[in-house]
Amino acid sequence: MAQPQRRPDSSSLAEVLDRILDKGVVIDIWARVSVVGIELLTVEARVVVASVDTFLHYAEEIAKIEQATAEGELEELEELEVERRPESSPQSASE
Amino acid sequence: MFPVNNRYVYGVVEGDPIEFETDAVGGASVVYTISHRRLGAVVSDIDTTDPEETDEDATRHDEVLRRIMNDGDGRAVVPMQFGMAFESDRALKNVLRGALPAFRRALNDVEGRVELGVKIVRAEDADVDADAVTERIADELEPIAAQSVGNDLFSDRLVLNRSYLVDREDREAFDEAIARLEEDEDDLVVRYTGPFAPYSFVDVTIGAQR
């Protein structure tokens, strides 16, 4: 017997708005208008299901940025990344 | 003629430049890429750095991303949130350069994948064991999806509200799993939407130190 056909609905404006106004990459206005002497901070929270443990790690990294900024050592931390770790992602099944 | 030296950014791609005509955000008619090395910001010209949120322009933003995602065999794009307009090409290239590793990783995460939305609503007057339903759905869908993320349960009739990042080649298996759920669960209404650009799976924030 053939599998029942089911296709997702692609026409919902509400579903698009939920995503486009709330998700996606965010770049703050200062990074969008300034050029001279600007230092960028990039934060990647590659954490789909955040745990307390991940949050604490994240907070620690943010503190490092703040400290480095104060000390003028930002470049080393430009590629800061909070890695998603297995114990923080119980719903991520395929890895 | 209004000055159009600001750039509205839809998303970031890697590789060959893009150019096509369409109804773009803010009344522009051409979408193209501004590149730094292999990265390209998908943009159109605009006369402001603070575009007004309208349904029409939100739809246009989304349609530009869909067009790129559906190009040929499908192209990876890291979607921006609505409203990311830059004052100048220099400011834009500065961000592409400064956040290049983050964009690369995000592109790698979403390559060959699309976002699908699933909302499960309890039928009116139905008595549903929400935990059991959630577990059954996780058992069916999580093994197929590459990643998933929960969204707000804004109504007490909403049993589950999640976004799934799914490999294109697993789309059919996902469709079939949704169909099985619908067949088996009479007390549940399944709202299945997409495919969307992977908005929910690119959690990147870029700021400037002032």
UniProtKB/TrEMBL annotation, chain A:
It is found in: Gas vesicle shell. It comes from Natrialba swarupiae. GO terms for molecular function: structural molecule activity. The keyword Cell inner membrane does not apply. The gas vesicle shell is 2 nm thick and consists of a single layer of this protein. It forms helical ribs nearly perpendicular to the long axis of the vesicle. This is Gas vesicle protein A. GO terms for cellular component: gas vesicle shell; vesicle membrane. Gas vesicles are hollow, gas filled proteinaceous nanostructures found in some microorganisms. During planktonic growth they allow positioning of the organism at a favorable depth for light or nutrient acquisition. GvpA forms the protein shell. The keyword Mitochondrion does not apply. Keywords: Gas vesicle. Residues 75-95 are annotated as: Disordered. Pfam families: Gas_vesicle (PF00741). Signal peptide: none annotated. Belongs to the gas vesicle GvpA family.
